[in-house]
């Protein structure tokens, strides 16, 4: 009888321990840590990603409604990303809000960390990860994450069951500087201050006399001197006659 009671007590202890541990074990099995590497696979750092941050969106219902696989969802979202403004329009039209209120930053090694659920409502969960804050000529491409799948297009699993995402980038080419178009109209000349007594548009430089003007002036002076000489001679003649 004592042995039966002891057996029942041990069995009851195991049952209680199992019931207590089951919820924690279930949560542990359905969540996974995601490591987002801003360095490309191989450890090469990408210029301009020092201040990059990430926002996480739940696209589980959207993928299910459109019957999108991981590949189909990624192709669709990459197309939206490549067209200016369409990604934001997509988020607004589908009423998708970020799961994280604060942007996920990177550590000194260029790695961002977050935790997601593998399943939602008994179906595989799907997430969209968008980056912002790049300062160089490279843009971090959107990541489509299906954490229930151990090996996906963008992720891989290490020994500690962490999903590792390695960045893929789109290079933005800077537009060549456009050459200034020559104007058909001449630029207006800067007006000089008007000099008193000089009409606007008249050249203010000193004009030298022409050769003909010099000859004419000399003839006039010579004629004047000749007249003065004759008048003086006549006056002297009158004085001499008066003295006689």
How would you explain this protein's 3D organization?
This protein has 244 residues and is of the alpha+beta class. It has a domain at 31-171: Sandwich (Immunoglobulin-like), CATH 2.60.40.10. The protein is built from five helices and eleven strands. A hairpin with a 2-residue loop joins strand 4 (119-120) and strand 5 (123-124). The longest helix has 33 residues, at 211-243. It is rod-shaped and about 185 Å long. The termini are far apart. The relative contact order is 0.14.
Protein traits:
alpha+beta; membrane; peptidoglycan-anchor; 3-stranded antiparallel β-sheet; 4-stranded mixed β-sheet; Immunoglobulin-like; signal; transmembrane helix; 19% strand; secreted
Question: Can you describe this structure in just a few lines?
Answer:
The protein is an alpha+beta fold and 244 residues long.
List the helices and strands and how they pair.
Elements: H1 2-30, E1 31-37, E2 53-58, H2 60-65, H3 70-82, H4 86-93, E3 111-117, E4 119-120, E5 123-124, E6 127-132, E7 138-140, E8 143-145, E9 155-157, E10 163-166, E11 169-171, H5 211-243
Parallel strand pairs: 1-10
Antiparallel strand pairs: 1-3, 2-6, 4-5, 6-8, 7-11, 9-10
Organism: Enterococcus florum
InterPro entries: LPXTG_anchor
Biased composition (Polar residues): 196-208
């Amino acid at each position: 009888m004592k042995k039966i009671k002891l057996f029942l007590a041990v069995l009851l202890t195991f049952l209680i321990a199992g019931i207590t541990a089951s919820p924690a074990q279930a949560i542990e099995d359905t969540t996974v840590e995601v490591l987002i590497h801003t360095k490309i696979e191989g450890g090469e750092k990408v210029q301009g990603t020092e201040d990059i941050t990430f926002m996480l969106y739940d696209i589980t219902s959207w993928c299910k409604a459109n019957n999108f696989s991981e590949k189909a969802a990624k192709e669709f979202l990459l197309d939206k990303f490549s067209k200016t403004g369409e990604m934001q329009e997509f988020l607004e039209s589908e009423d998708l809000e970020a799961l994280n209120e604060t942007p996920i930053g990177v550590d000194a090694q260029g790695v961002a960390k977050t935790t997601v659920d593998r399943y939602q409502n008994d179906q595989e969960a799907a997430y969209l990860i968008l980056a912002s804050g790049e300062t160089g000529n490279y843009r971090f491409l959107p990541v489509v994450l299906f954490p229930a799948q151990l090996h996906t297009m963008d992720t891989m699993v290490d020994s500690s069951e962490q999903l590792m995402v390695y960045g893929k980038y789109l290079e933005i080419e800077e537009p060549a500087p456009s050459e200034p178009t020559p104007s058909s109209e001449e630029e207006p000349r800067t007006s000089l201050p008007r000099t008193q007594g000089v009409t606007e548009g008249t050249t203010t430089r000193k004009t030298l006399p022409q050769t003909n003007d010099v000859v004419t002036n000399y003839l006039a002076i010579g004629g004047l001197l000749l007249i003065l000489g004759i008048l003086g001679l006549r006056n002297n003649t009158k004085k001499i006659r008066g003295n006689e």
